[in-house]
Amino acid sequence: MSIGFNRIIEDKILAAIKEGKLDNIPGHGEPLEIEDDSRVPEELRLAHKILKNAGCVPPELEEHMEIRRAEDLLNTSDDLAETYHAMKRIRFLKKKLLREGRSSRVFTIPESYEEEVVHKFHKK
């Protein structure tokens, strides 16, 4: 879009806000829920979003997403019990994928990670 076109849009939005036309829209004053789809390949993002919005997330994709959430928790949590639970859940899901003949190679967590986490918390 051109700079001029963006300016026209911005002016229209500001005018609507000033006139109160946007005061009663759903979600007004609430934080936006921004989904992190950075781990989904760009060429698949639209398809995944459409499927998700339709409530059609395949079980294997849900399992992959659950592993990613647990990995994110490992990277951010300072709670030993929560971290231990996340590691156990990742192991369970990875073993399940392998039993079902699906690859878990996209989930690369070093085997020594558990030892590092336990060591980190024993220092505190």
Structure, explained:
The protein is an all-alpha fold and 124 residues long. The protein has a domain at 58-123. It contains five helices and no strands. α3 (59-76) runs antiparallel to α4 and α4 packs antiparallel against α5. It is elongated. It starts with a helix and ends with a helix. The model has no long low-confidence stretch (mean pLDDT 77).
Helical/strand content category = mainly alpha
- Taking all Cα atoms into account, the compactness measure Rg is 22 Å
Q: Give me the count of strands.
A: 0
Principal-axes geometry comes out as elongated
Q: Give the N-terminus to C-terminus distance in angstroms.
A: 53 Å
Annotation field: number of helices? 5
Query: What can be said about the biggest beta sheet?
Result: none
What fraction, in percent, of the residue positions are helical?
55-70%
Q: Mean pLDDT, rounded to whole units?
A: 77
Give a brief outline of the structure.
The chain has 124 residues and is mainly α.
Q: Any key phrases for this structure?
A:
124 residues
Task: List the SSEs and their pairings.
Elements: H1 3-18, H2 45-53, H3 59-76, H4 80-99, H5 113-123
